[in-house]
Write a structure and sequence with these properties.
The protein is mainly α and 270 residues long. It folds into two domains: 40 residues; 210 residues, MetI-like (MetI-like fold). 80% of the residues lie in helices and 0% in strands. Helix 4 packs across helix 11, helix 6 crosses helix 7 and helix 10 packs antiparallel against helix 12. The model has no long low-confidence stretch (mean pLDDT 83).
């Protein structure tokens, strides 16, 4: 029994790596996609992974897909940054003053249940069809999830730590920045991750709904345009890019931030 356990130990160590498990899961899903596409045999309904990847390379070589992706990421960055800035202002005001707390509580109760995409018609009327309307909708989708997570984190800060800040004569925004924000950072980071997912989905949905001119449209418009042309392999290529960008941001950016902050600080398990 002992020798068998030792023999199986390297295998358990191999599958114990989260990175290896993720790669194996991705390969399994890719095999299922390819197998189902070949089994179905209808590229107009469900192209295989190999044909989707071929379409992806073709659109990348032509420059169309990179251009659309760059437009989407630029719009996303503007909306995401605006949402973070406004959330920081509102949360600081709520933590610092009673009026700010009451105002933020009321605004959150009013607007948090409202889907951001529902504001698209009004955003078009206010800003016209184009980037400013989508930026506004993205900002709205990010704002409330950031506020809710930040509030949850701030309310969880211990009274002893709060008193430490007051004893150091830290009040107002300085108390929030140097005492509350570091202690509440796990909740804030969670809000940033969820807000990113909301922003990315909202962006693609907004571009699918009304898009933009073909000269300045983003990734969602790329999908909608090729759907109208019945180029389904290109549609799937666009959706594959949406998935890959989501994975890269989640694993490459947010996971790295977690490792160098909350996991390193012992505030969260790895």
């Amino acid at each position: 029994m002992t020798s068998e356990a030792k023999a199986s130990h390297p295998l358990r160590g191999f599958f114990g790596s989260s990175a290896i498990r993720r790669v194996l899961l991705i390969l399994l899903l890719a095999a299922i996609w390819e197998g189902y596409g070949r089994f179905l045999g209808d590229d107009l309904l469900f192209p295989s992974l190999s044909k989707t990847v071929a379409a992806l390379f073709a659109s990348t070589e032509s420059g169309e897909l990179p251009s659309r992706l760059a437009n989407s990421l630029t719009t996303l960055g503007l909306g995401y940054a605006a949402g973070i800035a406004l959330a920081a202002i509102l949360t600081t005001l709520a933590i610092s003053t009673r009026f700010g707390a009451d105002l933020l509580s009321m605004l959150t109760s009013m607007f948090s249940p409202l889907p951001a995409v529902a504001l698209l018609p009004m955003a078009i009327l206010w800003f016209g069809i184009g980037q400013p309307a989508i930026v506004f909708v993205i900002m709205f989708s990010v704002l409330w999830v950031l506020v809710l997570n930040a509030q949850s984190g701030f309310h969880g800060v211990s009274p002893a730590l709060r008193m430490t800040g007051y004893n150091l004569s830290l009040t107002g925004w300085r108390h929030v920045l140097f005492i509350l924000a570091p202690a509440a950072f796990p909740s804030i980071l969670s809000g940033l991750k969820i807000g990113w997912a909301f922003a990315w989905r909202t962006l693609i949905a907004a571009e699918l709904v009304f898009g933009a001119s073909s000269r300045s449209g983003g990734l969602g418009w790329f999908i909608a345009e090729h759907r109208n042309e019945l180029a389904i392999d290109q549609v799937f290529a666009g959706m594959l890019v949406v998935i890959l960008v989501g994975l890269l941001v989640e694993i490459g950016i947010f996971r790295t931030i977690e490792k160098v902050t909350v996991i390193r600080w012992g505030m969260q398990r790895g």
